[in-house]
Amino acid sequence: MTEALKQNYDVLIIGGGPAGATAAIYAARSGLKVAIVDKGLTTGALGTTSKIANFPGFDGEVSGMELLQTMRKQAADFGAEFINDRAIGTDLSGETRLVFGNYEVYSARSIIIATGSMGRSNLIKGESELLGRGVSYCAVCDAAFFKDKVVAVVGKSDEAVEEASYLARFAQAVHFFAPTNQINVSEAELAALSSLPNVVMHLGSQVKEIFGENKVEGISYQEKGSTQAEHSLPIDGAFVYLQGGKPITDFLQGQLVVSAEGCLQVDRENQTNIPGVYAIGDVICTHVKQAVIAAGDGAIAAIAAEKWLRGKSKPRVDWGS
């Protein structure tokens, strides 16, 4: 682990949406050493939004991707580092906090959690029942188990495209299902995936069910706008990358206080029950889901983290035992 440990940061932000990007702007501008660990530009809700017309400072409509690119560039210009990785675990117990990614282990004095609510409550039929038995949310974690087998990837984000490309190195065939005819990636990325000899594209096809007795055996899907019966396809594994509304907190492994709905609990400065660890945006479920409000959360947390790191902050909430 020591060899893989990345240099220590002052502030490490998990999630690069409007909340995380704004936190990075404020923290980096204050002179702190800041990094954002994030899965991809269009993995979050903002990056997949086609039109935004009410974000302050933008005249007319702007896509979520364009808005997010602008925010990230501003953070990078102030010195924030962007790391393309997925947080799969954390250790928040010591003075130096650890975040375990797919590729590295990152350390920081302060952590800001901005992972959003892309975990889903509306699952594909059979998804939860077969999770871990052929259903997966991480190709990097599980691709080797599907060497020379047939798999399906469901999603329309750059994360889904990247994971499908990775799976193509192992699987006999990769069937890519997008619920719409357009995918939130560049034409070059889409062409690169489509050109792989073992990738079959199913754009505008909605997966209705993942089925199997004790493991994934197949899926059923229907083409968008079609009145025909559902199609059935035998597969060995299904990798799902779809949006939803459940807060993403599984990588925290129960170290922070959450509500009955699974939302992270914070004080008025967005600090959790662990000093120096903050949560912002949709993961705290305390407001209307708007980019400008998430950005405000990011500013509050970054200012609070800077004060805490310099020993100027005071506890705001008695969390009890």
- Percent helix, as a range, is 10-25%
How would you spell out the order of helices and strands? EHEHEEEEEHEHEHEEEEEEH
Query: Structural class given helices, strands, pairing?
Result: alpha/beta
Separate helix tally:
6
Overall mean pLDDT score?
Answer: 88
Radius of gyration from CA coordinates: 20 Å
CATH architectural grouping of the largest domain: 3-Layer(bba) Sandwich
Distance between the termini: 32 Å
Under the CATH scheme, which class of the largest domain? Answer: Alpha Beta
Which consecutive residue ranges, at least 5 long each, have pLDDT under 50? Answer: none
Strand content: 25-35%
CATH superfamily of the largest domain: FAD/NAD(P)-binding domain
| Tally of individual domains | 2
Strand count: 15
Under CATH, the topology of the largest domain can be stated as: FAD/NAD(P)-binding domain
Instruction: Tell me, briefly, the overall form.
Output: globular
Can you summarize the main beta sheet?
7 strands, mixed
Sum this structure up briefly.
The protein is 21% helix and 26% strand. The protein has 6 helices and 15 strands.
What does this structure look like?
With 321 residues, this protein is α/β, with parallel strands linked by helices. It is 21% helix and 26% strand. The chain has 2 domains: 5-119 and 245-309, FAD/NAD(P)-binding domain (3-Layer(bba) Sandwich), CATH 3.50.50; 135-241, FAD/NAD(P)-binding domain. Strands 1, 2, 3, 4, 5, 6 and 15 form a 7-stranded mixed sheet that branches. Strands 7-14-8-9-10 form a 5-stranded parallel sheet, covered by helices on one side. Helix 1 (18-29) packs parallel to helix 6 (291-309). It is globular and about 65 Å long. The mean pLDDT is 88.
